[in-house]
Design goal:
The complex is a heterodimer. Chain A has three helices and two strands. Chain A is mainly alpha-helical. In chain A, a hairpin with a 2-residue loop joins β1 and β2. Chain A is rod-shaped. Chain B is mainly α. Chain B has one domain: Sodium/glucose cotransporter. Chain B is built from 21 helices and two strands. In chain B, α8 packs across α9 and α8 packs across α17. Classes of the chains: A mainly alpha, B mainly alpha.
């Protein structure tokens, strides 16, 4: 059964959504082609608590990193194309503004990457771990319930 | 090159240099092959062969990732372009390092969603056989040109380092390097190639750091003095340290140069062998940490290459470098021949031998990584999933990947041998452009867009790859001028040299248009896209948290 299916619902086949089945080395036989007509009704997705907030937090961190790096990079490339004379101004000895900006872009990239990873570890990873653990517990509980129901059906046959 | 490398050395010293280089190569090959056999997979397990059972630590994986990233083309090409073009080359060096920031954003979700190959990630929102085949096509479209350019350059460089100059000797070197590449992949799998990458990064960093110190010492530790000497040595001191509108034969004009930087930043880190390396980490957080370590290592590397490029311009001279190779690929080896007293002294001979070994090990490690990812794609995506629909035992898949590595190696060797005598440097940029146009849009949309479906994926992968290759073939980098693949023919109908400027946005657009069309057809009752059968919530849960991932 798929982890997000409700107890009691039939398992849903998602094709090779997750690649190989981890526990089975031989995959199930191929599904027959879909019948003609309208597409099947989509399964009711179970809303995972906290996933929206996590998505927003990840998006915020990603946007910050991309914006800073892309803006710095675009500014340097634009200056190199539009104002080469400005970048050629010597600042310290033979070291000109262009070389200093190249070095600054490298430093900015390194610093933002370190900050991104640290903030991700602090703000996202613990919440992602919590959601994953809850999800795994729910999957385990669903599997146990299914086993118990199967056992009940076996005894009811007597 | 070798004649110039040993120009100041007596003949006996030149011979001793060749002997030292040959002995070093043989020792290195024996030791690494032995290590590969020892650490290689002892059981026919897919996870062991593809990902070393995800047992590498973040630091080990970060070093291996930076090893995968720093190819021979990067090392020799960047040094050469800095030596010949000055400021423009340094900007390209910065762009190369910056590309890992792109990978940093994708690393965690990629590992959470992925398993072994690109096809596993494409299957996230587009299950079925066609996306698996598309993943393999994209992998080969990037890997084949990249392998050919690496093997071709490596064969020529190795032959020259060994004192052999004939075309036949170069071809024999290509075949030998290709055979070693296949042997490493077959014997070592991911664990063996990772070990090689780590050894390569340590050896390369130490050697290049020592060479850099020698260069700086020659200029009294003064960056200004080095820059001034480099500008004088380049032959065009007035514009060497300023941005110009000509970038060798690769790009001319601000638009093409901007396109070149954009392509490198978006594509260099999205090559299939990099994605496979990310999948060898234990979880998303480890993947991110490894990428951060790789960014730091590549950052150090970029600084070293910049100093060495400037040193080559200052000590060897732009004219001498161009005389050997118009792209400046010989600059690092020529520089090593002029430092520490040259090959006639013990220190100079040691340095020359060490730099030669560095180039050799870089080539071997990178081509082995490329072979592994291409073979894995053929075996896992095409054979196991597209042809056998997942009904393939692990032992048979491992056997298939070994045959695929052999096949890919033979094709690569034959193409590289055939390419001898042609200028195939544009293939390096072509591989990066295909990665930026066909792989990156499909990855970004697969990971972050709920509306992405099979039609969108196929349109963006095939459309992006076809557009890139087509535009590149009719660009001025392939024909119509000196330094191109066909200098005597002219079919450069497009003025665009950096095709990524068009193909990257076009591929994103094709992905969106294809997804819209797929959705409309599904709504109209044609079962084209099984998007409605995908639990998007489950996909998102997996991408963000790694739930249900391996």
């Amino acid at each position: 059964m798929h982890p997000t299916s409700h107890p009691g619902e039939p398992p849903y086949d998602y094709g090779d959504l997750s690649g190989w089945p981890p526990s089975a080395r031989l995959a199930p036989p191929p599904r027959p082609g879909p019948p003609p007509g309208p597409p099947p009704v989509p399964p009711q997705a179970t809303a995972t608590p906290g996933l929206d907030a996590l998505r927003r937090r990840v998006g915020r961190l990603d946007r910050a990193l991309i914006t800073v790096n892309a803006a710095s990079f675009a500014a340097l490339v634009l200056l190199a194309g539009a104002a080469p004379g400005l970048l050629a101004v010597d600042v310290v000895g033979q070291i000109n503004l262009g070389l200093l900006l190249c070095a600054a872009l490298g430093v900015v990239s390194l610093c933002t990457s370190i900050r991104y990873d640290r903030r991700y570890s602090r703000e996202v990873d613990p919440e992602a771990d919590r959601i994953r653990t809850r999800h795994e517990e729910r999957v385990a509980a669903t599997a146990t319930a299914a086993q118990e129901r199967a056992a009940g059906r076996r005894w009811s046959g007597w | 090159m070798n004649r110039l490398l040993l120009a100041d050395a007596p003949t006996a010293a030149g011979q001793s240099a060749h002997t030292a280089v040959l002995i070093s190569f043989l020792v290195f090959v024996c030791v690494t092959l032995l290590l590969c056999v020892m650490v290689g997979p002892d059981k026919d397990e897919v996870a062991d062969f593809y990902t070393a059972n995800r047992t590498l630590t973040p630091l080990q994986n970060g070093l291996a990732l930076s090893g995968d990233y720093i190819s021979a083309a990067t090392m020799l090409g960047t040094t050469g372009i800095i030596a010949l073009s000055g400021f423009n080359g340094i900007m390209l060096d910065v762009s190369t390092a910056l590309a890992l920031s792109t990978l940093l954003v994708l690393a965690g979700p990629l590992r959470n969603a992925g398993r072994y190959t690109l096809g596993d990630i494409f299957a996230l929102r587009a299950p079925g056989r066609a996306p698996r085949v598309a993943a393999s096509v994209a992998t080969l479209a990037v890997s084949v040109p990249f392998l050919v350019v690496q093997l071709s350059g490596a064969g020529a460089a190795t032959a020259m380092l060994l004192g052999l100059t004939s075309a036949g000797a170069q071809q024999i070197c290509i075949v030998l390097i290709g055979v070693l590449m296949v042997a490493y992949t077959l014997a070592g799998g991911m664990k063996g190639t990772s070990l090689m990458q780590i050894a390569k990064v340590v050896l390369t960093t130490v050697t290049l750091a020592i060479t850099t110190l020698c260069v700086l010492a020659r200029f009294h530790w003064s960056p200004s003095e080095l820059l001034s000497a480099a500008a004088q040595g380049s032959g065009h001191p007035a514009d060497y340290l300023r941005s110009t509108s000509q970038f060798g034969v690769t790009a001319s004009g601000p638009l093409n140069i901007a396109g070149l930087h954009l392509t490198v930043v978006l594509g260099a880190a999205c090559m299939p062998h990099m994605i496979m390396r990310i999948n060898a980490t234990s979880d998303g957080a480890t993947a991110r940490r490894s990428t951060r370590y790789a960014l730091g290592t590549v950052g150090v590397y970029s600084v070293l290459l910049a100093v060495l490029g400037l040193g080559a311009a200052a000590l060897v001279g732009g004219q001498a470098i161009s005389a050997v190779n118009p792209n400046g690929q010989a600059s690092l080896l020529l520089l090593a021949g002029t430092l520490a007293g040259g090959p006639s002294t013990t220190a100079g001979l040691s340095l020359t031998t060490a730099v030669a070994c560095t180039v050799f090990v870089t080539v071997l490690a990178v081509v082995a990584g490329i072979t592994l990812s291409a073979a894995a794609s053929l075996a896992h995506d095409v054979h196991a999933h597209a042809i056998r629909r997942g009904r393939l035992t692990e032992a048979k898949e491992v056997r298939t990947v070994r045959w695929a590595a052999l096949l890919f190696g033979i094709v690569g060797i034959l193409l590289a041998v055939e390419a001898q005598g042609y200028n195939v440097q544009f293939l390096s940029m072509l591989a990066v452009a295909v990665a930026a146009s066909a792989v990156l849009p499909a990855l970004v949309c697969s990971l972050f867009w709920r509306g992405y479906n099979r039609t969108g994926l196929l349109w963006s992968v095939y459309g992006g790859a076809a557009l890139t290759i087509g535009l590149q073939l009719i660009s001025p980098t392939v024909s119509g001028g000196p330094g191109t693949l066909f200098p005597t023919h002219d079919f450069a109908w497009s003025p665009l040299q950096s095709v990524g400027l068009v193909s990257i946005p076009a591929s994103f657009l094709l992905g969106w248009a294809g997804s819209m069309r797929g959705r409309r057809r599904a709504e109209a009752g044609h079962e084209v896209d099984p998007i409605d059968r995908i639990d998007q919530e489950a996909v998102e849960l997996r991408v963000l948290t790694g739930a249900d991932a391996d």
